[in-house]
Request: fold
Amino acid sequence: MTTTSFKTTRSEEIFAAAQKLMPGGVSSPVRAFKSVGGQPIVFDRVKGAYIWDVDDNQYIDYVGTWGPAICGHAHPEVIAALHETLEKGTSFGAPSAQENVLAEMVIEAVPSIEMVRFVNSGTEACMAVLRLMRAFTGRDKIIKFEGCYHGHADMFLVKAGSGVATLGLPDSPGVPKSATASTLTAPYNDLEAVKQLFADNPDEIAGVILEPVVGNSGFIIPDAGFLEGLRLLTQENGALLVFDEVMTGFRIAYGGAQEKFGVTPDLTTLGKVIGGGLPVGAYGGRKDIMSMVAPAGPMYQAGTLSGNPLAMTAGIKTLELLQKPGTYEHLDRITKKLIEGLLQIATQTGHAVTGGSLSAMFGMFFTGEEVHNYDDAKKSDLAKFGRFHRGMLERGVYLAPSQFEAGFTSLAHTDEDIDRTLAVAKEVLSGL
Ligand code: KE4
Reply:
């Protein structure tokens, strides 16, 4: 498969114009390909496991719009359900039966969730859950982990200092020091660092928030005992444990990473999959905590489009499709086939690599060392990842345009798609 046929004239025209209209030409930074270099492609349409760009190049897609397309893009049953709902309007700003349906499905699926509140993005869900942690405990400080991303709210944009633990320093201009002064950080998988933080801040920490499987530093799984250790530490210190399952929810398992690892947090955030491709986020957990949320309780949080019927419909249909027997077996098998093939080919073609998968989430680093946290991930060969990404893109395989993002498969990916991806990878890795 040569790359000479790879013409992106139309993409280049549209992206050039976009850069005059929107900062960086995008609606979200990672889409600009800054960390892998080269020109982003402009999408025309998506279906199942595939993307077509505006130059009519076709790609096998391993981003799935960053997670929501777990049943495959534009699933016919989701589209049909949306058409039906559209006839009744797009937004009510009032209670609807669909909210009850999706709420019941989420409560039934996720071990920690007894009550749930819908919002419009993962960022909103994480912002709200932070306020709730503070409201419930009466404490201000929180612990997050380096390399974990919980949306772009001020208090999460923390540049973790080196060393065991540090008071957060803002990681973006515009974030006042006061907004991150109560955000403590520690390396992922480092229980000792968390223990130290609790010792240094007795009775001041409202809780710990983390990605139970990290997808925002590349793909990093929790070390054995890490999640269990956090559950114990938070209980011992009167603090809450929050799993940010915006990415892992309904992907690692139908009940999320908390079902997979058997560790039940006090609160959980969700997004992506539960919106089935429309804007939805959610936070939920123990009834005694959620009862603090207005108007049931005093903690304020609101949203014009929260729980709108269109987004609820897409989420309901998506979860119904995921409930079908064999779903997670297929996702696990097809993703394992992909990552094991990639690692084997990379090794055979002389590259030091490490990586893995859990259900429909995978990742690979160009390094011979194990990757347990963000520092380890940063030591991998980022330039080589950029060249790998470009080589795959030019041959019709669309990987996440950053080493610090996990990859995603879907129910629409077939063995032929995986075989083709591996054949392309062999060509690219041989010449990398
Ligand atoms: P959104 O506000 O983007 O819906 O969700 C924020 C968020 C919260 N928590 C986790 C674990 C997340 O992964 C995210 C968003 N993920 C990124 C990709 N890693 C979204 C893509 C983007 O930023 O453009």
Observations:
- The longest strand covers residues 205-210.
- Residues 160-168 have pLDDT under 50 and may be disordered.
- The longest helix spans residues 327-348.
